Amino acid sequence: xxxxxxxxxxxxxxxxxxxxxxxxxxxxxxxxxxxxxxxxxxxxxxxxxxxxxxxxxxxxxxxxxxxxxxxxxxxxxxxxxxxxxxxxxxxxxxxxxxxxxxxxxxxxxxxxxxxxxxxxxxxxxxxxxxxxxxxxxxxxxxxxxxxxxxxxxxxxxxxxxxxxxxxxxxxxxx
Length: 174
What we know:
Structural class: alpha+beta
Largest sheet: 5 strands, antiparallel
Order of helices and strands: HEEEEEHHEHEH
Shape: globular
Number of helices: 5
Radius of gyration: 21 Å
Mean pLDDT: 73
Helix content: 10-25%
C-alpha cells in the first residue's frame, strides 16, 4: 500500500497542535494561521523536509516562512551527504523500524514558531526600539573590559498599512 502525505505528516507531527488534512498540517493560534507541508526534493515524489508558513489571519499577510531540512535535524539516517531526499514509503518504513527521528525537527519548528507567539501587529506609524549589542563599540570605548555596550536603533515595521491590499486596510489609520 502506498503511503500518502497525510500519513507522513501525521507521523512527523511538525505542529504539536495541528490538524492534518490533505497535503498539509494546519494550526490556528490567536490571529495566526500556521501551515506545515512536506518540502519537495530534487526528484519527483521525494521530500527534503518540512516547509512552515505563518500567516496573519485577518489580513492574509505572510509573517514568515522557513523550510526545515531532514538532514539538518538528522530526522532520517544519512545514506550519503546530500542524499536526504526521501519518498513517502521510505519515511513510513523508517518510522516502522524506529529509525525516523522527528523530535529534533519538531523542536526546531517549535522554537521558530515561538518567535511569533507574542507578536502583536503594530500600527503603521509606530516605531519600536531594539537593543543591539555592539562589541565593536565596547572595544573602542574600553579595551580593558570585555563587556558589551548596548545601543538602541529605530526599527520601522516591514508591513505598513499602505503596503496591504485595500481589503486588509479597512479600519487602519494612515
